[in-house]
Amino acid sequence: MSIKMIVGLQYGDEGKGRAVHYEAKQASIVIRATGGSNAGHTVVANGKKYAMHLLPSAIIRPEVLSMIGPGVVADLQVLTEEIKQMRDAGIKVERDNFVISERTHITFPHHKQLDRLYEMLKSNKVGTTGRGVGTTYEEKARRTNLRMHDLLIDSSELKNKIAENLKVYNVLVTEANKLIEQGVYQEDKFPIITADEEFEYCMTYKEAIKDYIADIYPILDKAIEKDELIIIEGAQSFWLDNDHGDYPMTTSSHPNASGTASGAGIGPTLINEVIGVIKAYSSRVGNGPFITEQKNEIGDKIREWGHEYGTTTGRPRRTGWLDLVMVKHTKNPSGLTSLCVNHLDTIGKLDKINVCIGYKYKGQVIKHVPIDKENCEPIYQEMKGGWNTEGATTFEELPKEAQEYIKFIEEYTGVPVKYIGVGADEKRTIIK
Ligand code: IMP
Ligand code: MG
Predict the structure, then answer these.
(1) Residue-wise pLDDT tens digits, 219-257
(2) Ligand 1 pocket check: which of 54, 75, 244, 251 to mutate, most ligand atoms within 8 Å of Cβ?
(3) Cα–Cα distance between 106 and 246 in angstroms, integer?
(4) 405 pLDDT exceeds 90?
(5) CATH (one of 3.40.50.620, 3.30.950.10, 1.10.10.10, 1.10.300.10) for 105-213
(6) What is the DSSP track for 173-207?
(7) Domain segments of the chain as ranges
(8) Residue 47 confidence class, pLDDT cut points 50, 70, 90
(9) What pTM did the predictor assign?
(10) What's the CATH number of domain 277-432, 3.90.170.10, 3.20.20.140, 2.30.29.170, 3.40.930.10?
(11) Could you tell me if the CB of 39 is within 6 A of ligand 1?
């Protein structure tokens, strides 16, 4: 039996798509498990660049069944547009290679408004992607939100459910609009949203989506019985996890390995491999602690060379050195079996590279991550860079310093490196 999971270990955007794409070559199913259209996966294959928010990155492999799991929240408009965009690009998106769980929650227009409202009210802003993801999870937890299955129920019943779900939103924005009128906040007013409007939203996208909605459990059961390879595709990352990350500067779901297993509906004992993906440096989009951040020329160079701009929001990403203390911390909570290290080509352009191997914290040197990360100062080990990975197709063909960098990551974390990314195209992957 083989079930493998791919998760991010830093602040998202580690290049999980590369590992997914590689593992998917043998897979029968790839299932996306958490998050929503806040995610941005860029996959470069056959010289073409694909940016996806909801569809699993394996959608570009027609022989694989791509699934969206019950742990995901899906914006109907984004999903519909993404399906269309892929089809226009000649990528197959049919019922036999794509399904979405009937339990996947729906992100409605009012969720995006609520996202804006909460950020307006917060003094300590998270810097969300504004995609209404956290607010969908909130209403899911409140147990009023609707799921894909609801698109298929009787119209009057659907409208009633929508009306019920909108009650809290309309009470909140009525109060918020008073504060805006009083000049307390300089923000565009929030629209009152009617059940008819969100019913229309459902009807607009229902046609494009309805045939993909399925009960995923029998499909997974069959694949597990037949011993087929299933890949669980994570979104976001460990340090953005609502339980384990930099709360409150996190996302609203549980993109750590266990949350990702739950979001897919696959039990932990069935999972044979957990591949954690990191970049050879660090990046973060949105607010929150970032111990190794380089707000200087080095950070600017990494941003330019690594094209570190948000796939979803276009925001320039904050950049900095690789923090191995943070990476090692994730080893046991994730049950890591291997690592994928991306952007080894990018970091090698610098002659001297720093890697964080400990923190100065309250007068002590520590090698773990405390809850108050903002009180940590990084302790660096300097490594020799200045390498060029062009032409290298095996680990042995990499320049000596690049090999040393990878070995250092393995020794520090105690986790073997399986994949190394040395270029944006998935072909520029070295298997160690
Ligand atoms: P939200 O998930 O839109 O609520 O945003 C919460 C935080 O998570 C913000 O700092 C976002 O920038 C960050 N975030 C959410 N999704 C991603 C992602 O896919 N990559 C990187 N950061 C993300
Ligand atoms: Mg991304």
Answers:
(1) 999 999 999 999 999 999 999 999 999 999 999 999 999
(2) 251
(3) 26
(4) yes
(5) 1.10.300.10
(6) HHHHHHHHHTTSS-SPPPPP--HHHHHHHHHHHHH
(7) 105-213, 277-432
(8) confident
(9) 0.96
(10) 3.90.170.10
(11) yes
- On whether the CB atoms of residues 173 and 113 are closer than 8 A, the answer is yes
Q: How far is the CA of 42 from the centre of ligand 2 (A)?
A: 7
Check 41, 111, 244, 254 and give the catalytic one: 41
Neighbours of 179 (CB within 10 A): 13
Ligand 1 atom, smallest distance to 287 CA = 10
Distance 136 CA to ligand 2 centre (A): 19
- Angle ∠(10,324,415) on CA atoms, nearest 5: 90
Condensed to tens digits (0 to 9), the pLDDT of residues 328-357 reads: 999 999 999 999 999 999 999 999 999 999
Give me ligand 1 centre to Cα 363, in Å: 33
Q: How far apart, in whole angstroms, are the C-alpha atoms of residue 24 and residue 121?
A: 43
Contact assessment for residue 85 and residue 211, using Cβ atoms and an 8 Å cutoff? no
Task: For residue range 294-320, list pLDDT tens digits in order.
Answer: 999 999 999 999 999 998 889 999 999
Rounded to 5 degrees, φ, ψ at 378 are -75, 145
d(CA 38, CA 109): 14
- The arithmetic mean of pLDDT across residues 76-96, rounded, is 95
| 14 pLDDT more than 80 | yes
Tokens describing residue 81: 């547009």
Ion ligand 2 neighbours, Cβ < 5 Å: 13, 40, 311
Give the number of the atom of ligand 1 that is nearest the alpha carbon of residue 128. 5
| Ligand 1 centroid, distance to 390 Cα (angstroms) | 32
**Cα–Cα distance, 167 to 174 (Å, whole number):** 11
Dihedral angle sign, alpha carbons of residues 368, 372, 373, 376: negative
pLDDT tens digits for 87-98?
Answer: 998 999 999 999
Q: Confirm or reject: Cβ of 265 under 6 Å from ligand 1.
A: no
C-alpha–C-alpha distance, residues 356 and 323, integer Å: 5
Q: Which atom of ligand 1 is found nearest the CA of 288? A: 10
Please tell me if the CB atom of residue 263 comes closer than 6 angstroms to any atom of ligand 1: no
41 catalytic, yes or no?
yes
- Mean per-residue pLDDT, 10-23: 92
Q: In angstroms, what is the span from residue 129 Cα to ligand 1's centroid?
A: 6
Give the three-state DSSP class for 327. Answer: helix
What is residue 1's predicted lDDT score, i.e. its pLDDT? Answer: 54
**Pick from 128, 75, 108, 417: nearest CA to 279:** 417
